[in-house]
Structures are given as structure tokens and as C-alpha cells.
């Protein structure tokens, strides 16, 4: 009697698994495992790139907006301009009671006259003493004393002149005048009010030298610097006013994460300070649309065609949802359809 060989259950299972894996390997090595070509569409980069229009909120600002304060104490006896009034340079804005300061000037003038008189007398006595010394009727010691007295009198005269100049300066400070041609933004001076040195009286905004101030993100500062044309469009108006970039602050504001820029008007612009609107400029650097940007790993970039292969080009400055600056040649073939399914180095039709 012949008996069939006995296979333990464990060995049977192991043999079946080996046969199954071998079959899978054979299938993988066959023609069916060849990766199909991915259908895509490409276009020259210079036919799809953009020169994006940028904008930022902006406001017309006076180049100088000065808070004029009292330099001396006293009572306001007169004010000449109210809010909204236009004033010329040097125009009187506020008059503080000058009486006490006029008296101080008179006292200083009297002191100066006394010092001049004492010096004239001393110089006459010194000249007489020198004559007497030559004649032997006056000692050298007495002459030296006269010379010292004259030197002290000259010092007293210089001090009296300084006191008079200071008194006149204080008197002039009772008249608050416009440091430039401008418009009164705020008037705090009240008739009959006693003010102390440093008390604010007027806020004056300079006219004819307005600037535009805007808050721009750090990513857009470079494009703004390179822009060939920058414009300000007041709110509710269609007209745009040409600007030139004056300065950019070097610090980023903590709250808004923006930098402040100041721009000047290219020509005359009758826009009063406080006018709000938008700052417009065109970034001259070519950008690819956000729709062409894909993410691979932790990097954002685009796919380009190299023969029959797709190559992923990472763009370091890329941000999701925004057009991205690109430095590739204009004739580069960039994938514009099917890029979402591609991998770096994949074959394409």
C-alpha cells in the first residue's frame, strides 16, 4: 500500500504564501506594471506670468503738523485764527499779555544804561590815572586797581546786554506765530485763560507740502521700490495722482506686521491732509498665478517640462493663495494643467 506524503498545516500555509508572492512579483515585472504617461498641458512661462497690481490703504498727511505751545506763562488776551483757517508764515495766532515782560525789558534797558555809564566813568578815570603815572603822581599799584575796576565794569556791561536780550526774547515769546503757511487743525487757546509754559494752544498742519503715508507688508516692499509708477486714488474718486517713493521705515509694526512708507506727489495735488484712499503700484517682477503653484513635501513650487520629464522647481518666496515671483527664463515650458497629479521626475506625454 502506498501512502501520500504528509505535509503539516504550517508548511502548507507557508508554501501557499510563497506561491502568491511569486505570482505578484511576476505580475509586477510584466508589461502591466509599466507606469502610464500622465497627460498634461504646458505653456511658455512668458505667456502666463503676471505683473500683479498691488494696493495698500493710504492717507494724505501734512509734511509738518506742529503742536504750538506757550513758551511763557500769562493770560491769553487775543487769538486770531480758528479751526480750518488758513494762515501765512509768521502770522500772529495767539497773544499772551505782554505787560510784565515789557516791564522786564525796561528794567534790563535801565540796567544796561547804568552799566554803560559806570564803564564810561571808569575808562575816564583809568585814562587820567595813566597820565598821572607818567608824571609820577600815581603809583603803579593804584593804576592796576583802576584797570581791574574797568575790567569788572566791562563784564557788568556784557551781563546787562545779555539780560536785555533775554528780556526781549521773553517778550517776543508772548506772541505765538505760525512757523509755516498752514491750516489750523485744532485751537486750544481760550480768551482770558491763564496758560503756563508748555500749554498747547494750536495744532497747525503745513499746506502745499503734503505726503502720502501707507502701510505695506514687508513682502511687497521690494516690488514697491522697483515699481516704475505709483499712484494714490482718493476714496470715492476715479482720478489717480502720481507719486514718488520718499522713504521706508526700517521697522515692522508689531500689530499689523506692516512697514510705513512715505511718498510725495509728482505734481501739484489739491488734496487736504486727512484724505484717505488706496496706494496702487504694479510689481515689475514676473509672477506665476497662484493656480499653478503646488505643494510637494514642505515646499511650494511649479512643475516645468524637461523633454518628457516633469521637474519640480521650488519657489522660496511662495505663499499659498498668492501669485509668486519667478526668475526662470520666459521660454521655460511650465505645466498649466495636470500639475496636481505630478511628482518630480515623472514621465509625461
From TrEMBL:
Start and end residues of each CzcB-like barrel-sandwich hybrid domain: 68-205
Source organism of the structure: Tepidicella xavieri
Keyword GTP-binding belongs to the record: no
UniProt name for this protein: RND family efflux transporter MFP subunit
GO cellular component term of the entry, any: efflux pump complex
The family this protein is said to belong to: Belongs to the membrane fusion protein (MFP) (TC 8.A.1) family.
Transmembrane segments: none
Coiled coil: 105-177
Superkingdom as given in the UniProt entry: Bacteria
Record key words, sorted: Coiled coil, Signal
Signal peptide limits: 1-28
InterPro entries xref list: BSH_CzcB-like, RND_pump_MFP
A UniProt-annotated Pfam family: BSH_CzcB
Molecular function terms, GO-annotated: efflux transmembrane transporter activity
Amino acid at each position: 500500500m502506498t501512502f501520500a506524503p504528509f505535509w503539516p498545516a504550517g508548511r502548507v500555509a507557508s508554501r501557499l504564501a510563497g506561491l502568491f508572492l511569486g505570482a505578484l512579483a511576476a505580475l509586477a515585472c510584466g508589461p502591466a506594471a509599466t507606469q502610464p504617461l500622465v497627460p498634461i498641458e504646458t505653456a511658455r512661462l512668458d505667456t502666463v506670468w503676471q505683473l500683479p497690481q498691488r494696493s495698500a490703504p493710504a492717507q494724505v498727511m501734512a509734511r509738518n503738523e506742529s503742536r504750538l505751545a506757550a513758551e511763557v506763562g500769562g493770560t491769553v488776551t487775543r487769538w486770531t485764527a480758528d479751526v480750518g483757517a488758513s494762515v501765512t508764515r509768521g502770522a500772529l495766532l495767539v497773544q499772551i499779555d505782554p505787560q510784565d515782560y515789557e516791564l522786564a525789558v525796561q528794567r534790563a534797558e535801565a540796567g544796561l544804561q547804568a552799566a554803560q555809564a559806570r564803564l564810561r566813568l571808569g575808562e575816564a578815570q583809568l585814562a587820567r590815572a595813566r597820565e598821572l603815572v607818567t608824571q609820577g603822581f600815581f603809583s603803579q599799584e593804584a593804576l592796576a586797581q583802576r584797570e581791574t575796576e574797568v575790567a569788572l565794569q566791562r563784564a557788568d556791561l556784557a551781563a546787562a546786554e545779555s539780560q536785555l536780550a533775554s528780556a526781549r526774547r521773553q517778550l517776543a515769546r508772548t506772541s505765538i506765530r505760525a512757523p509755516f503757511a498752514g491750516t489750523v487743525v485744532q485751537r486750544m487757546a481760550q480768551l482770558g485763560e491763564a496758560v503756563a509754559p508748555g500749554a498747547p494752544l494750536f495744532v497747525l498742519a503745513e499746506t502745499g507740502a503734503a505726503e502720502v503715508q501707507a502701510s505695506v507688508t514687508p513682502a511687497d516692499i521690494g516690488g514697491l521700490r522697483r515699481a516704475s509708477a505709483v499712484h494714490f486714488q482718493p476714496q470715492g474718486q476715479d482720478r489717480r495722482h502720481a507719486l514718488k517713493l520718499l522713504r521706508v521705515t526700517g521697522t515692522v509694526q508689531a500689530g499689523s506686521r506692516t512697514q510705513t512708507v512715505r511718498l510725495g506727489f509728482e505734481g501739484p495735488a489739491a488734496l487736504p491732509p486727512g484724505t484717505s484712499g488706496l496706494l496702487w503700484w504694479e510689481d515689475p517682477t514676473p509672477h506665476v498665478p497662484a493656480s499653478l503653484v503646488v505643494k510637494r513635501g514642505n515646499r511650494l513650487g511649479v512643475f516645468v517640462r524637461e523633454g518628457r520629464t516633469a521637474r519640480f522647481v521650488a519657489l522660496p518666496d511662495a505663499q499659498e493663495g498668492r501669485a509668486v515671483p519667478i526668475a526662470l527664463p520666459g521660454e521655460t515650458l511650465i505645466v498649466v494643467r495636470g500639475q496636481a497629479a505630478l511628482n518630480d521626475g515623472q514621465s509625461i506625454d
